[in-house]
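User: structure tokens for this one?
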Amino acid sequence: MFRTYQSKTARNLDKDINFAYNENMIPSTFLPPMSKLYFAYRGRITHDQLQEKTIQQIQKFHDKLKSGTPDQLQARVAAGRWTAMEVAFHAVNTTRAILRNCDSLRSNKELPALERSAIGKTKTVSLEDLIQLCDRALDQVKQFDFSYTKTKVYLHPILGPLDFKQWLVMNLVHLERHYRQMLGVLKSR
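Assistant:
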């Protein structure tokens, strides 16, 4: 896939990426081309792979929290920046919320509008509570039925309208992104 994009001009590249991107059900025009490619790549995995990769990502958070010291995990790199624990809380708590929303989408329940101000939030919790949150999220993901069902869409304030699978793909990308962020925070200490 990547080889065919190398010889194209920037304009044609963007056009082709948008085609591949839309083919894989990620509709946003707000993302840069490389993000579109990554979403398209992630959108091609099966529901079983999606579930397994989601479990693996949450397990990585869990393991890193268990192996880190409280000083490492609670250190703030700079004023206004999240600690490793705050990053983990945000990522794992968001996964739990997305799975609840996907259950509602699958059963055609109405969901309240998701406001832009509601995303990108975190809070400080104890390490013990955060590890328990990871455990609950792992149980929730293991029990969740990832098989794709055609559903109505639910509007993400940045990415636009997403259906059931799109939310699950976005969740995986979100977990991966914040795990890298957490590693960066820990590395800078």
